[in-house]
Amino acid sequence: MYTNPGTTPADQVSIPDIQTEGGVCASAGFMLAEGVDRCPIPIFVLNHEHSILHWNRALASLSGHPAEAMIGTQLQWQAFYPSARPTLADLILEGALEGDVDRFYHGKFRRSQLIEGAFEAEDFFPEIGTEGRWLFFTAAPLRNAEGHTVGAIETLQDVTEQKRAEQALRDSEKRYRLLSITDALTGLYNSRHFFSNLQSECERASRYHQPLSLLLLDADNFKQLNDTHGHLEGDHVLQALARVILLCVRSTDSAFRYGGEEFAVLLPGTSLDAATQLANRLCEMFASTPLQLSSSAVIRCTVSVGVSEYQPGEKPSAFMRRADEGIYEAKRLGRNRVVPISHRGED
Ligand SMILES: Nc1nc2c(ncn2[C@@H]2O[C@H](COP(=O)(O)OP(=O)(O)OP(=O)(O)O)[C@@H](O)[C@H]2O)c(=O)[nH]1
């Protein structure tokens, strides 16, 4: 007969011996204990006094705590936590309800779909190994013939590699998404992102009755610059303009390159007047920024800016058209200037 050491006779589970083919009597209990010990899944078993009955080889290897040091003690927490606290198996043994488990494993656990009274959880254990490990662990009650809980079993699986792979996938999806909305030359957002943001910011401004302004910027005499200094130098000037835009806007604003030498800035929570002031600062800063060419020559470039403020309920295209009119007017008036266009009520 196999009896769990450390349990009272009433709690003990008796397992009949087995007659093997060779006529040798093998204890089913012995085989069960051997099965737990050699199981490649880390396992420990507690008796009703929370003392460790089994601490298998896989768990010894995972935790670095040998079975000899653990069996018969109540030090199961030492393998997982820096200070004494219940493990999931301890909570199960105490007949913990969901609220009790939640206190220790908030947002990280759920009831088992397979075994009544069992829970499963996933958590990061910084104490294990040199860098910590992610473990998926389950704990289930062990009951005697009368249905009383006489112990608990906990299994643990190291899911660190899977977690790392999931994180790497999330990171690469994030990088890919960022790339898909970024303009390669300037690092600002691209035109696709501009048009989707324009739509969503207009909806938000309408819903929350918040001001929203738009700057459209067009580099001046850019064809001439390209023709004189070459396309590559033109590209450097566009990069310099992007840097100046980023220096002038706030973290809540978004800057885009939506065409060749055309840029846009969406300014949530900003009135036409405030947006015009910002545009003037930007315009002056760019005009006064010396731009060094690869030939060492230094040039200065300018930009024309149109500004508009969104009218709740109007189409984004109408909002954009006014800023565009501002650019044309700025060009007509001699370039290197900002022209705000107020809503005239015709849209
Ligand atoms: N270097 C460079 N040039 C570009 C890029 N995209 C567009 N351009 C050039 O920008 C120039 C724009 O020329 P136009 O539309 O005639 O305007 P402009 O010469 O700037 O004149 P105004 O807008 O009236 O001041 C064209 O020569 C385009 O080839 C780009 O990514 N890099």
From TrEMBL:
Residues 119-171 form the PAC domain. One of its GO terms (cellular component) is plasma membrane. InterPro entries: Diguanylate_Cyclase, GGDEF_dom, Nucleotide_cyclase, PAS, PAS-assoc_C, PAS-like_dom_sf, PAS_4, Rev_trsase/Diguanyl_cyclase. Coiled coil: none annotated. Its EC number is 2.7.7.65. GO terms for molecular function: diguanylate cyclase activity. It comes from the Bacteria. Residues 42-100 form the PAS domain. GO terms for biological process: cell adhesion involved in single-species biofilm formation; negative regulation of bacterial-type flagellum-dependent cell motility. It is an enzyme of class 2 (transferase). Residues 210-343 form the GGDEF domain. Pfam families: GGDEF, PAS_4. PANTHER family: BIFUNCTIONAL PERIPLASMIC SUBSTRATE BINDING PROTEIN_CYTOPLASMIC DIGUANYLATE CYCLASE, REGULATORY COMPONENTS OF SENSORY TRANSDUCTION SYSTEM. NCBIfam families: GGDEF. This is diguanylate cyclase.
